[in-house]
Design brief:
With 280 residues, this protein is an alpha+beta fold. It is built from five helices and twelve strands. The longest helix is centred in the middle third of the chain and has 27 residues. The protein is rod-shaped.
Length: 280
């Protein structure tokens, strides 16, 4: 606590008169008055959404775009964002812009996939050929006959029948063969196994040379007539019998866009021969 001279007001550390300035012999305590009164500032308008202060009631808020302002009188409040010149929108803007951009890209990719411009698994069509089922029965040999040779002979006999009827001959194609194999094996698996059958639209996954392939599928049950595959002396004889069976049903020969054909012949466990050929 300091002391001061009553006469001249000079401060002293101790109450030890006389004053070394004027020689007066009485000191008094030097008490400092502290003013606790809060000096109000002018009115400000405070955004109720983010707390930003504005000098005028002029929504929207320059920081967050809010429109709810409240009039307040008092000393200005310190806003830490004012010192660095950043608003709440500046803090959140980058995150939201990036998020919107990612969503826009994903929607664009999905749309292009649906339109067929790009390939996206599970969206807008097929992503490849379907899996060929492991159908019951024989896909390679039956009664000592090679079913691959029967298929080759089948195409020769089929072309002979087609040209005799004024239709064009067909060229065997590996891709069309794969489509016929899928369809025939799936059909066998559904009839004598536990499969769900072929999906006609799944043929698009093979990338055939035509947009609308013709699928011909039929079965020949030799066992119902007391015959079997073992009754045929060679592959050509069996192939001719299978083609004749198709012709005798009164079936028409299909036109071909690309002039290709694929064939699959499968013998089921009971002896029924399943035949599928695809014309493209």
């Amino acid at each position: 606590m300091e002391w001061r001279c009553e006469w001249c007001g000079k401060p002293h550390e101790e109450n030890d008169p006389p004053c070394d300035n004027c020689g007066h012999g009485t000191f008094e305590r030097a008490v400092e008055q502290v003013n606790h009164e809060v000096v109000e500032g002018g009115p400000v308008w405070v955004c109720q959404d983010c707390g930003r202060e504005h000098q005028k009631h002029s929504p929207p808020c320059s920081r967050c775009g809010g429109s709810d302002f409240e009039r307040r009188i008092g000393p200005p409040e310190t806003d830490p964002l004012d010192e660095i010149g950043t608003g709440w929108l500046d803090v959140l803007e980058t995150k939201y812009v990036v998020g919107y951009a990612v969503v826009a890209v994903l929607l664009g990719v999905i749309l292009l996939s649906v339109l067929g411009v790009v390939s996206l698994p599970g969206v807008g069509g097929t992503s490849g050929p379907p899996e060929i089922p492991n159908a019951p029965g024989s896909a390679d040999t039956a009664a000592g006959l090679s079913l691959a040779d029967v298929e080759a002979a089948y195409v020769d006999v089929l072309n002979d029948r087609r040209t005799n009827e004024g239709a064009s001959a067909l060229t065997r194609n590996e891709t069309t063969d794969a489509a016929a194999t899928y369809y025939n094996k799936a059909l066998v698996d559904a009839r004598v196994g536990d499969g769900s059958g072929p999906d006609r639209e799944a043929l698009d996954g093979f990338g055939l040379a035509c947009e609308r392939p013709a699928v011909v599928a039929y079965q020949v049950a030799y066992e119902r007539t007391g015959r079997s595959v073992s009754d045929f002396e060679n592959e050509s004889a069996l192939a001719a019998s299978l083609v004749d069976n198709y012709v005798e049903r009164g079936s028409r020969f299909r036109t071909a866009e690309a002039g290709t054909v694929g064939v699959d012949i499968h013998v089921a466990p009971g002896g029924t021969v399943f035949v599928t050929y695809v014309v493209c």
